[in-house]
Design a protein that fits this description.
binds heme C, 2 domains
Length: about 190
């Protein structure tokens, strides 16, 4: 009797040892990836800068919503869709949603010559919607810098001299803004002037 208890104890111990050594519990399945099938493609508009200065801006238009954060360097994330004070250069815009899923888009801040920067800024301010954001009147698409550069003489005729009529249509630039166009033309009317 004593002997059988002894063997029972020994056998149980052996089984226990054997089981604990070989039958390790299966690892729990990894949690499902919340980002599986999630594609985030940031969309942003930019304004550029005078070369050597930090006047560039980035404004994210999509995706927006609660819990979404934005980064221009991939390190510091912010809730605001606006970035200011950017120098000319190539950036990577990263957008992260509330689940931590993220996507990136390249963003380029161009460096303009100082007088072209003034003209570009006034065109952005006064020549929309008729010549901006995809709207083309009179064959002029001022979204494109080269269209502004190539149209320098017509921009002067219409926005400075009013020949045959003044632009912006239905109004007129201030003397100060007309002078910015004249200064750019006198400087050589290129992007770099
Ligand atoms: C409210 C709408 C509107 C705004 C704002 C506007 N334009 Fe125009 N623009 C037009 C239309 C319409 C035409 C085509 C008819 C014409 O030439 O008058 C035109 C044509 C032009 C042309 C090409 C025709 C030509 O004479 O060579 C130039 C250059 C031009 N605009 C410059 C400008 C500039 C520069 C600004 C901003 C300072 C501006 N426009 C703002 C409506 C607008």
């Amino acid at each position: 009797m004593k002997k059988s208890i002894f063997y029972t104890v020994i056998m149980s111990s052996l089984i226990f040892v054997a089981c604990s050594k070989t039958d390790t519990a299966p690892a729990p399945p990894p949690p499902p990836d919340p980002c599986l099938g999630v594609t985030i493609t940031p969309v942003a508009s930019v304004t550029h800068t005078t070369t050597g200065l930090t006047q560039g801006t980035v404004t994210v238009s999509s995706p927006i919503g609660s819990g979404i954060t934005y980064s221009i360097n991939g390190i510091n994330f912010q809730a605001s869709v606006n970035f200011y004070n950017l120098g000319a250069g190539n950036y990577t815009l990263t957008v992260k949603d509330s689940s931590g899923c993220s996507g990136t888009s390249p963003v380029v801040i161009k460096g303009y010559g100082p007088t072209f920067f003034q003209v570009r800024t006034l065109i952005n301010g006064y020549c929309g919607p008729c010549h901006l954001n995809g709207t083309v009147n009179g064959g002029k698409n001022f979204d494109v810098d080269s269209d502004v550069v190539n149209s320098w003489d017509r921009i002067k005729a219409r926005a400075v001299d009013g020949i045959p009529t003044f632009m912006p249509e239905g109004g007129q630039l201030t003397a100060l803004d007309k002078q910015k166009i004249v200064d750019w033309i006198n400087a050589g009317h290129q992007i770099t002037n």
